[in-house]
Amino acid sequence: MRHFHHLLRRASAWMLVLVAIFCLPMGGSFAAPVAAPRSSERLALIKQRGSLIVGVKTDYPPFGFLNASGTSEGFEHDLAQDIASRLGVTLTKVTVSGANRLQKLEEGSVDMLLSTTGDTAERRKIVTMIEPNYYSSGVTLFMPPEQNVSDWPETRGKKVCATQGSYFNRIMAQRYLLDLQMFNNARDAKLAVKDRRCIGYLFDNTAIQGDLRLPEWSGYKAPLAPVLNTPWAIAIARREGGSDFERLLGDIVADWHRSGFAIQREKVWGLPASSFLADTHALWKKIDAKGRRLCEREVSGQWPSACRNPVLLSSTDTTGLRRVGLWFKENTGLDLSLIYDEYDRTRFFLGLGTTVLLMLLCVSGSLLLGVLGALLAEARVRVVSRLIWMASIVGRMTPPLLAMYVLLFGLGSMLMAAYGISVSAFGVVVWCLSFYTGSSITTALLFAADVKRQSNPGFQLRWGNLGELIAMSSGHVTAALVNVSKATMMASAVAVPELLSVATTIMTDNGNVGVMMNVLLLTFLLLIFATVRLLGALERRLLGAVK
What we know:
About 55% of the residues lie in helices and about 10% in strands. The chain contains 21 helices and 13 strands. The chain has a 3-stranded parallel sheet with strand order 5-1-6. Residues about 1-5 and about 10-30 have low confidence and may be disordered. The chain is mainly α.
C-alpha cells in the first residue's frame, strides 16, 4: 500500500509538470503584466524630422504606380499616407523594387516598407514584420473572354502559360496536372494567351488585377479563386522589434481592419473583393462572450493567437492542442500538422473519407460488373456473349490509369468543347477501376462455370447457382477486390482529392514529407487490413452458406 501511495504521488507530480509545460506560458510562470514597449529611436527621428519615409512600389498597379502626370499613387500609397497623418508628419515616398527593398530598409534609407512584401518565416529573420497583415495575394489564371473555366479542377490537363522561376509552378502543375508552357517573362506569356496557345497565364493575382485595368486587356478576366495565398505585411528594421514603433504600426493596421478602411481603399482602386480583407474585418470586429473584442492585445503586448497568422506562430504563442503540436515540432523536428492544425486535419479526414468512399464504390462496382458480365455471357445469346468476352478482354488488358486519361482528357475534352459538359473525375475513377476489376471477376466466374461443366455438361450459370460459382472462385475474386482497394490511390493522378492527393498537398504546404509519408503508409495499411478482414469474413460466410 505504501508503495502504491508513493507511485500515486509521483504520477501526480508528473501531471503537474505536464500542466506547467502545456497550459502555462512557456518561459514564465503565471501570466503577469510586462513592461511597456521600449522607446524607438526611429520613431523619435521621424517625429523630429517631421516626415515619414516609406519605401513603396511604382510598378505594381493598382497597389503602386505612376499616373499620367508622373505622380506615384495606389492602394499602398493611401495606406502610407494614413500612417503619416496619424503620426502628424508629412509623407515622403521612395520607390523600391523587389530586389532592393530589404536592403533600403536595412541601411536606413527608409523608415518602413509598404511594398507588397510577403510575410514569410525567412523574411522575419531579416526584418520585423508588423502584425496583423494588411493584405494577401495568391496564384490565379489570367484568361481570355471565351474561356468558361470556373474552378481549378477544370484546368486539369490543360495547357497553361507560366513564367520560368515562379515558386508556384511546380506545386500547381502537380496539384492540377497542368501542362505548363514556360516563357521567359510575363509579356510573352500574356501574348501566348492572346494567341490562344494556352487557356490562361498562371501568376500572382494582384499583378493580374493590375493588367486587367489596362485597355489592351479589355474583356480578359481572372475568375478563379486565388490559391497558395501569402499575406503581406509592413516591414520595419529588425532592431525595431518590441519597440513602441512596432506597437503603433500594429495598432494602426488593426484599426484599418476593424473600421473597414482597408476594404474602402480596395473599392476605391477597383480591386475585386478580397476574401482576406473580408474575413479579417469580420475577425477583428468579433466580440467574445464577455462583450470584449476578441482581437485585443494581451498583457504581453502580443495579439491573441486566434488573430495572428497561424503559419508563423510558435508554441509560446498558442494554447491547447496547437501548443502541444508546435512544442513537439520545435523539440523533435516532427511536424504533426494534421493533428494540431484544424485546416490540415479537416483536409486529411476529407481525403480519408474520399478514399473510403472510393474503396466501397469500386469494390461494389467491380462485383456488380463482374457478376452482370458473367450472367450475360452465359445467357447463350451469341452476339451478347461475344461482346461480353471482348469487353472483358479489353477491360483486363487496358491499364486503368490509361483508361482514366483517355476518358478525362480525350472524351472529356471533346464533350467540353462540343457541348460544355464537364466529366466527373471521381466518376471516371470509379468506372475505370470497377471495369478493370469487374472484367477479371467475369473471367474468373466463367472459368468456374467451365470447370463445373466438366462434371455436369448441361450446367449454365444462373442467378440461382451464382453463389456456388462465387464460392469456387472466391480466392481470385477476393484478391481482385483487395487489389482494386489499393488501386484507388491512382485517383490522385487525375486530381481527385483522396488520401494520397491530400497528403501530398499537406507535404507541399508544410514540408513535413517524412511524417506525412509514414502517416500515409500506416493509414493505407490499416485500410487494406480492414478490407482484407471484411472480405475474408464475407468469403467464409458465403462458403458456409454454400456448404
